[in-house]
Amino acid sequence: MNNYPEGKFMTTVKIGTKGQIVIPKEVREMFNLNLGDSLLLMADKGQGIAIQPFSFAERFWNAIQEAKKGDK
Fold this sequence. Notes:
Elements: H1 25-30, E1 39-44, E2 48-53, H2 54-71
Antiparallel strand pairs: 1-2
């Protein structure tokens, strides 16, 4: 077992023939990711790739919409 600080994990993954990667069990458990969950993939050539649960983006979007309502 790896001895990472709580809430941290690091590993390598390989890209399969269909361009897919496997999210390690430890990470799925850490973020409570389950079969059928949607993830948001963001890519920036200079900064790399980030993957977030879709619910994160949804909460972020809703917060922006609420802030816009307050500006009117």
